[in-house]
Amino acid sequence: MRIALGVEYDGTDFLGWQRLSHGSTVQGALEQALSRVAAQPVTVTCAGRTDAGVHGRCQVVHFDTDAERDMRSWVLGACSNLPTAVAVLWAQPVPGAFHARFSARSRRYRYIILNRPVRAALDARYVTWERTPLDASAMHRAGQALLGEHDFSAFRAVSCQAAHARRCVLGLDVRREGEQVIVQIEANAFLHHMVRNIVGSLLPVGRGQQAVTWLAHLLAGRDREVAGPTAPSSGLTFLGPRYEAHWGLPAEVSA
Questions:
Q1: 106-238 shares the fold of 2-103
Q2: Residues 221, 227, 230, 231: what is their CA dihedral angle, to the nearest 10 degrees?
Q3: Three-state SS string across the chain, please?
Q4: Torsion of Cα atoms, 222 then 228 then 234 then 240, to 10°
Q5: Which residues are part of the catalytic machinery?
Q6: What are the residue boundaries of the structural domains of the chain, listed by start?
Q7: How many Å is the Cα radius of gyration of the chain?
Q8: Model confidence, pTM
Q9: Could you tell me which CATH number the domain at 106-238 has?
Q10: CATH fold label, 2-103
Q11: Residues 6+ away with beta carbon under 8 Å from 70
């Protein structure tokens, strides 16, 4: 049987999603918990790997098992064996053709910038602090140059292992909500550090240090060394993937 799960996590104290032999990861914690519920080894495949310190609102994974458990047992059993920073939100059987990564039509991220003179205390794990007043409207206008399919080499980490840098950005929105400036972006897929590098390049526009047209110039130039620095991981949350409705997954991850 193939089962899909929705998983949320606070990534602050993990070395990222992907299982590692030398430290704590979300995948490692989830597989250990599921293996205890199944009483046999379980390996999961996710919709999109996240870096150290990045959070997940509804990561989707799938795994195959012949252990007979009802869906409620997978959810409650996993949660009882997971650290408090990780929770399984839902579980449901899916067809064998479903693949958490390859069946996803898009992925969505949100980046939150606390824009005030004083740093965060309560929300420090989930935002990035910027004391200089930001023009969210200018950031939004600048970001529209990234819509569509392009070569995103200017926003690609040197360590990125993707075969090519072409990605299709379906939506990019920057808005202010009180003291927060929120960047939300959806694409068919993302390069390593792509969202954080885009945010790092939007910030100089928001501060008035660069023109609204700067993002378009960076995109055309394809030079990572010219673009802005990589924004901190704390403000980034993977909202989740989107799948075609025929897979029958919960509304939060269905197109």
A1: yes
A2: -120
A3: CEEEEEEEECCCCCCCCCCCCCCCCHHHHHHHHHHHHHCCCCCCEECCCCCCCCEEEEEEEEEECCCCCCHHHHHHHHHHHCCCCEEEEEEEEECCCCCCCCCCCEEEEEEEEEECCCCCCCCCCCCEEECCCCCHHHHHHHHHHHCEEEECHHHCCCCCCCCCCEEEEEEEEEEEECCEEEEEEEECCCCCCHHHHHHHHHHHHHHCCCCCCHHHHHHHHCCCCCCCCCCCHHHEEEEEEEECHHHCCCHHHEC
A4: -30
A5: 51
A6: 2-103, 106-238
A7: 19
A8: 0.95
A9: 3.30.70.660
A10: Alpha-Beta Plaits (3.30.70)
A11: none
Please name the residue that has the structure tokens 């299982």.
19
Tens digit of pLDDT per residue, the chain (255 long)? 999 999 999 999 999 999 998 899 999 999 999 999 999 999 999 999 999 999 999 999 999 999 999 999 999 999 999 999 999 999 999 999 999 999 999 999 999 999 999 999 999 999 999 999 999 999 999 999 999 999 999 999 988 888 899 999 999 999 999 999 999 999 999 999 999 999 999 999 999 999 999 999 999 999 999 999 999 999 999 999 999 999 999 999 998
